Amino acid sequence: MTHSSATNGIVANRVSPQQLADNFSDLHGPLDDHEAQVAADRCYFCYDAPCTTACPTEIDIPLFIRQITTGTPEAAAKTIFSQNILGGMCARVCPTETLCEEVCVRETAEGKPVRIGELQRYATDKLVVKGEHPFTRAASTGKTVAVLGAGPAGLSCAHRLAMLGHGVTVYDTRPKAGGLNEYGIASYKSTDNFAQAEVEWLLSIGGITMQCGASAELADLQARHDAVFLGIGLGGVNSLRAEGEDKDNVTDAVSFIADLRQADDLSKLPIGRRVVVIGGGMTAVDAAVQAKLLGAQEVSMVYRRGKENMSASEFEQELATSKGVHLIYNAAPLRVTGNGSVAGVEFGYTQTVDGKLEQTGETFSIAADQVFKAIGQTLLNVPEGLMIEGGKIAVSDTGATSVKGVWAGGDCASGGDDLTVTAVAEGRDAALDIHASLSR
């Protein structure tokens, strides 16, 4: 294999184009009609189903699976979309193993749940891929709402408001809509440009104007619209608070994933020979696995607490190890070494004593020519006047902020758990509260 010019071991073209295509193919291929029937037949169609309760958007899971068994997947899709308009993407990225499938009666009894996520994808693709929209827009109310941020929360809010007859303008600073669905998840979870196809399908209800590459001030939006919804996400990246983290080739994992998602040719995307990812969440796993898939020879993912404390699910952790990622627990970064560019990271082993994380005094080092930080994000550029709680915008159960006429949801708002499906639920519920407010 011929490598492009190297900069401290970071090169492009580490693996063949065919290998790249295989590496970044669909993590779970779609079910065909027969497979869907077999999977759906395992459902007990529970009354007061625990899976529905475990779903943040409260999809009626037994109903949509029954609709699949009766040969009406389009009806199943409408059942899903009535609660979760981004049900197609959620079927791909939701940690179903810790939500609906974890509480499935089949999982409890047999250790093998109904394949709810894959069945949801089977149903929703019937409409999204075909471009058929199941809902119609109500008569115009004459009211307008600004949505700041075109991520899952903003899109969910915009769609429900449009469905209820309000005029919606969505503003997003990035060139494409979708938020983390477009820029922040592993490529093997969302192939064939599905994120953009879903956005276009969602917008087909009408009544939504999309302004990408546009910034807007809250005061201006309040003056021009009857209500405002903030779905601005978290733009800042937490610091390692380790000596030397400003060295070259120490970057945040979110930017790496975004660059990878937007790359036209993955063979031109440079990656280190030895990569260290610091963090224990989904973003850390996505960065580590994709670094390996791009051809990094050694990838270590280091988390400061124990395996049981990781926010990445058991499935995600097993996916990482199956791809050759070395998972290291109970270790925190002390300093980044190297002369100008990173050459390694020194870690200190940790232990939890009375609930508090402490250094043991024992250290070790990992050689690295590239380091990705995946230790959480922070809220940036908070509009003035909004109450902040725990570093996020304080909101009520229905998303209302401390400022009259302004709602918020998704990662930027208090109380969420940083999941796409939760952001969708919060955007939907805020839209219903905005509608009630505008209807008074």
Name the features.
440 residues; globular; alpha/beta; FAD/NAD(P)-binding domain; single chain; five-stranded parallel β-sheet; Fumarate Reductase Iron-sulfur Protein, Chain B, domain 2; disordered N terminus
How is the secondary structure organized here?
Blueprint (H helix, E strand, L loop, with lengths): L16 H7 L9 H8 L9 H5 L6 H9 L3 H11 L3 H7 L11 H6 L5 H13 L15 E5 L3 H12 L3 E6 L7 H4 L10 H10 L4 E5 L5 H7 L2 E4 L5 E2 L12 E3 H10 L11 E5 L3 H12 L4 E5 L11 H9 L3 E3 L2 E7 L6 E10 L2 E12 L2 E4 L3 E2 L9 E2 L2 E2 L12 E3 L11 H19 L2
Parallel strand pairs: 1-2, 1-4, 2-3, 4-17, 6-13, 7-8, 7-13, 8-9
Antiparallel strand pairs: 5-14, 10-11, 11-12, 15-16
Helix pairs in contact: 2-8, 4-5, 4-8, 5-8, 6-8, 9-16, 13-14, 14-15
Question: What does this molecule look like?
Answer:
It is built from 16 helices and 17 strands. Mean pLDDT is 95; it is low at 1-7. β15 (388-389) and β16 form a beta hairpin. The chain has a five-stranded parallel β-sheet with strand order 3-2-1-4-17, with helices on both faces. The chain is of the alpha/beta class. It is globular and about 65 Å long.
